[in-house]
């Protein structure tokens, strides 16, 4: 089964289950308030982290360094903000995990280690000679 189709089915099912369980524990009105509260707090924190990441990226660009981590971090903050806007407790948890800086660093390290191992294999380039025809 396609993993995207599975996610489209499972994520709402998990969210509905959590809505029912938490709603039966704290009440429907409090559950709705909690959903809005987590969305507002998450968006506020995502904005603050996004501005911080933007400032770090600009500092690196002024130093003539490539802001690779900041670009990935900004994209992850945007994804985390989307997860926080979507109503639900599981998506809020994932969104908060993505927005927090230590989690983003773990994700960045995982992808950077994966790419650095494969960057300089002998199969990635072709040796040869060239001749300048304009001479």
Question: Would you kindly provide a written description of the structure presented here, covering whatever features stand out?
Answer:
It is a single chain. This protein is mostly helical and 135 residues long. It has one domain (10-110). Helices cover 79% and strands 0% of the residues. The protein has helices at 3-26, 28-62, 68-85, 89-99, 101-119. The protein is elongated and about 80 Å long.
Give a brief rundown of this model:
The protein has 135 residues and is mostly helical. It contains five helices and no strands. The mean pLDDT is 85.
Largest pleated sheet: none
* Count of extended strands: 0
Q: Please count the helical segments.
A: 5
User: What is the string of helix and strand elements?
Assistant: HHHHH
